[in-house]
Known about the structure:
Radius of gyration: 60 Å
CATH architecture of one domain: 6 Propeller
Strand content: 35-45%
Distance between the termini: 99 Å
Number of strands: 101
Largest sheet: 5 strands, antiparallel
CATH topology of one domain: Neuraminidase
CATH superfamily of one domain: TolB, C-terminal domain
Number of helices: 3
Shape: flat
Amino acid sequence: MLFYRSVYIYLAILALVLVGSVGNAISSTPDTIETVASLSPTVPTGVATDSSGNIYIADTGGNRVIMATAAGAATLTVGTGTAGFTPTTGYSGLNTTLADTTVQLNAPSGVAVDANGNVYIADTGNHRIHMIVADTTTKLITTASRIITIAGSGIAGFSGDGALSNIASLNSPTGVAIDATGNVFIADNGNYRIRKALAVKIATTGVVTYGTISTIAGDGKATTLTAYGIAIAPAPAGDLYIADSGNNRIVKLVAKSGALVAPVTSVTIAGSGTAGFFGDGGLATLAQFNQPSGVATDGKDLYIADTMNNCVRKVSLTTGVISTRTGSAAQNAAVVPVAPVPSLSYPMGIGINSAGTVYIADSGNDLIDQVFASVSAITTASPPGGTYSTSQSVTLTASKAANISYKINNGAATPYTGPITISGPATTTLTYTSLDVANHQEATNIATYVFDTAAPTTSATINATPVNGVFYSAQSALTVTLTSNTPTSTIYYTTTGTAPAAVVTNKYTAPFNIPVTSALTTVNVQFFAVDAVGNKEVLQSQKYTIVAINTTASPAGGSYRSAQVVTLASNDPSAIIYYTTNGTDPTIASTQYNPALHINIAASTTLKFRAKDANNNLEQTKTQIYTIDSVAPTTTASPTGASFATPQTVTLTPDDLNSTIYYTTTGIAPTTSSTKYTVPITISKTTTLMYFAIDPAGNKEVERTQIYTIDAVAPVTTASIQGGTYSSIQSVELVSDDPKATIYYTTDGLAPTTSSTKYTVPISISSTTKLQYFAVDTAGNIESIKEQSYTIVTLTTTASPKGGIFTTQQTVALSANGIGTTIYFTVDGSTPVVTVTSRYPELTVSYAEPTQEYSVPIVMNSTTTLQYFAIDEKGVIESVKTEIYVIDSVKPTTIATCGTAANTIKLTATDAADLMPRIRYIANTATNGGATAAYTLADYTAQITFANNTIVKFFATDAAGNTESIKTAYCADVVAPLDTNPALYLETLPNAATTSNGTLFIRGNVAPFATATVDVNGTVVTTNSTDGSFSHPFTLVVGANVITTTAADGVPTTTDSRTINYITPGTTPTNITIGSSNGVIGHFVRVPIRFASGHQAAALSIDIAYDSSSSRLSNPSVDITEAAAALGKTINGGSPAAGVYRILIMDDPVNTDIPLPLPDGIIAYLSFMIPFATTAGSEPLAVISYSATDLYAADMTEMPVLPAMDGKANVVSKPGNNIGSTTGDAAATLKGVQDALYMLLDPVTHPVDGSVDLNADGIVQIYELQQVINTFIGL
C-alpha cells in the first residue's frame, strides 16, 4: 500500500476509467475542507471536473475511473476493478462502448475533460491514452458512449514521434491535458517527456482518424524533467503547467497565440529545485516543494498537490506569491482540516471547477476532498516576503472593503492603517488577515522577511590549488574555479587584466581554462560576487604565471660511430623525469632519471622520456633516436647499367637514407669534392656512372660503377617467303638484322604484342593466313608491325542444284574455286580419270571417254549419277565428288485391302522412286441413324480398324511431290454381330451449318455399290455402280432445312439427318476465310485459306488485297494442299494490279478425267516474305472478290456465291525477324524454336502455333520444324 502512497508511483498502466460509488450531497461553507464521503476510491491519484460540475476520479488502486455528479452521487464506473487490458483490437486498442462490462484498465493515474465533455484517461499500466466520446448534444457520458484508444501501442518504450499516435510507444503515462482545439498533451512519465498528439477526428460513420505525435519537452533524462501531473491554462492563454515531481518544481510551457508549438519555451514558475517546505508569502520561484504530483489552474491561480509535504499550495499567477491553501496549522494553511475530515495524506491529483471549488485526490486517505472557494477578502503584501539587504515598507491591500489587522513576530494584533516598516531582526515574520463588512474572516496569511547586509566572499583555485607565481604544467590547459561562500551569489570575472563589470558577458557560470603554451604566460584573473539581495564583494584578483613543462636530451638523437652519454633536463626544477630505452612510452613506474648517473647509449637505442609536474600530470612523451653505426652504407642504382633505346633517368638510393652520395659521369673516380647526389641523373648517351655514399656516422662506401649504352635504332625483320596465293603448305622463316633481337608473331589476324608467340622455328602455313610480326632489341627498340598474307587454296567444285529427287528434268551447273581450273566429269556412273603429261612450262592433261571436260551446264532428264573433280593451273587435283539426280514424274499407286478375319483396312502404296510414299486417307464409318464424320485427312501409319461397314478415301504422294488421284474403297463388317446396313459417306455442309446458296448438292458415296439405293427426303437418287458415288441438288428454303439421306440395301438402312440453315445472300460470312497467324519465326509466313461450299465448286478464283507499299510483306506466292492435289487440282498465282494477288485453283487438264469438287477446309496457303523487323507490326489481308465454278452446271458457269468479303486477317511481324541485326530480340526466336520442339513431343499441353505448323493442319511435322530451324539459322 505504501508503494501507491508515494509520489514515485509511476504506474506502468494506461487505461480510462469512470468513477463508481458516490454518496451524499455536499454542503458549501466558504474556506472549509470537506470529504465527498460516499466516494470510495482506492489510492486516487487524479481528479477532474466538467462544465456541468461532474467529477471524474482516476482510481489508481481500484483500476477504475469513477464519474459522479456535482452533488457527489456516483453515476458510472469504467473498469472491472481488475488490472488488465480488454477488449483489444490490436494497435487500435480499445474501441467499444461503456455498455461493455469487460473493459479493463491498469492503474489509471490521470484524467481530464475537454470543452465538449469528452473524457481522457492516462491508463498508466497499459501505456495508453483513452478517450470517452461524450454525447454531442448533452456533452455528457452515458453507457452508450464510445471508448477508444487514441495514443500508445501498449508496448512500453519510446518511439513513434512523427507517426500516428495510436502506434507510438509510451512508458507509464501519468497525466493528460487537452487544449481548446482538442490536441492531447501527455505526461510520458517513464520517458521523461511531454508528448503532444494532434486531435483525433471521428467521422459520422465512426471511422477514427488519428493525429501525429511529437515530443515538445524533455530529453529522456530524469534530471531534465520528471513530469507527473499536467494542466492547461484556460483560453486564450493555453500555457501548460507541469508538476516536475522528481526535480521539486513547477514548470510552465509557454504557448504562442494560445497554442503550444515547437520550439516550446520552458520556464520554472515555482520551486527552487531543493526538496523541503519553504517560501510561503514570498516569490514562488524561491519556495521549496517535496515531490509535487498534481497541478490545476483557473487562469488566476495555480494549485499544486505538494505530495510529500501533505498539503496543497497556491501560487498567484499575477503576483507570483506562494501560500498554502490547505494543510496543517504548522504550515499556516488557509484551510486546516477539522475532524472528522482527516489531515491530508499524500495528495496527488488536483481539479478545480467553474465555481472555484478545488478537488483533491487524497491518495493516502483513499478520499476525494473538496475545498470551497473563499468568499472573504483576499489580502496581499507588497513587497512580498523574501530576502532583502535594507528595510522594507510593506503595504497591505484587501481585494474588497475589509478591516485588516497584522502581527509582527507573533506580537500583538495591530489594525492596519498604512505602510508598515520592517527593518529587523534578521528574520521577521509578518502575519495578517481581514474581516469584511459581512463578517467573513479571511484565513491568516504569512510573509517572512530576511535581512542580509554581509557581502559574499569569493576564492579562486587553479586545478583545485590557489597558486601565485610560476606554474609549470604538463597539461594543455589549466582550469580555474571561482567559489563564493554564498551559493546563490552571482560571480563576475575577467582574464584581460581589466576590472569586470556586473554584466551578463562577464558572469561566471562554470570553471574556465587558461591555455598552457611553451611561452611564459601571465594571466590576471579579477573577480567579485553579488548576492541575491545586492551585497557586492570587494574586487579580488589572482595572478597566474604559466609555462608548459619541457624536458630536453643532450646530446640530441642522431647517428654516432661510438657510444654516447645522454643528460636529461627539465625547465621545472621540481619536476621528476621518467625514461625508457626499449621503445615503450614511459610511465611513473618507469626508470626515474638520476642527474648524477646520466644515461649510457652503447648501441642503437630509442630513448623516450617525460616529466611529471607538481600536480602529478605527465608531459607528452618525447623521443630521441640514437644510432651507433660503424657499417658503411650500400648504394643501388635504378635502373642498373644496360643497353637502352631511350635516355634513362637513374636513381641512386643508399640503404641508409641519411647518407650523402657523391658521383661522376666522366669516368673519373668520385671524391667528396665531386657532385653531391640530390635528384635523379639523366643519361642521354653512352655513359660510365661512378658513385659512393658516406653515412652520418662517417662510414664510407666502396666506389661503384654502372655503364649505360643508349641505342635508339629499331631492328628490321624479313620473311623468307612473301605473301601470295599457294596451293600447298608453306614454311616461312623470320630473320632479324639484330641477332639479339626477339621476334614476336601472330597468325590469328590480331596484332602481335610482346605477349604473343616468340619466333623460334619456321612457321608452317597450311591455310589462308595473315602473318604479322615485329622484333624488339635488347635496348627495347620496337620494330613496326609487318604482315604477309598467304592464301592456301583448297580446290573445291560444287554442283547446283545438288542431287535429289525431282519431278522434272534438271540443268546442273559445275563451278570450281581455284585459279585456272578445269572440271572433268562422267554421267554413266563411272569415275572420271585424267592423265597429267606435263606441268612445266604449262599444265598438259589428257583423258578419254566416258570422261568429259565441263564447258556448259549438264541436262538431267532421267535418273543420273554425276561424278566430277577439278584440276588447277598448278596441277593440284581435287578428290572426286558424286551427286545422284532422281527424275521421277510418275505418280504413286495405292490399293486398299479389307481384312478377312478382322475389321481392318490396309493401304499399300508403290512408287518407282520412293520406297515409302506418304498415304493420306479419310475413313467414314456410319451407323444406322447416325451422322457421318467430318471430312478430315489423316496420315496412314498402320492398318485402320473399324466397327461397322466403312468407306475409305485415300491417295499417296511420293518424295518428288507426285500425288495420285483420290480413290474410294469399301470394307464390310466381318466381325459378329455383322452390320448389314449399307455404309453411307456424305460430302456436303455439316450439321447446323449456315449458307446463302439456294441450292445445296447432297453428294457422297454408298456401299455395297451394286445393290444399295439412296433417297434424299424421299427422292430416290441414282448411284454410280462403279464407286457408289451420287449427287442430288436440293433446293433450300429460308430458315432451317432438315435433310435426311437414307441408304438402303433391302431392309437394312443407314440414315443421316442434318439441319442446314439458309439465309438471304449478303447476310452471312463468306465461303472463304483467311486464317490468322500470331507471329512468325524467321522471315517467312504461310497463311491458310479455308473454303466451305458443301463440295459444290470444282474451280475457284480469289483476289486478295495486301499493303504492298509498307514493305512488311513481299514476294507473295501460293501452293496447294495435298488433299486438293489428290483431286487433280492445280494452283497458280499472280498480281493483276498493285497490292492485289490473284489465286486460281482449277482441274489439271492433263491428269484429270472428270472434275471433282473442292473439299471443305484448307485448300491452299498464301505465303509472304517478311523483311527484318526491329519493332512489331502487322499488315491486314482481305479477300476483295472471288468466284467459284459450279461443278454440276452443264456450261460450267459460276455458281452463286457471296459478294466481296469485308473481314480481315492480320499477318503479324514480331521483333526477332532480324537475324543478323544488332538490335534484334534473338531470345524471342530461340523461344519459338523451343516451343516447336515441345509441340512435337507433347502437342496436347503445347498447342500448335501457326508460326511453326506451316500448313496449319494442326500437326507439326518434322519437315515443318526443319524449315523453321533452317529459316532461323539463315539457310
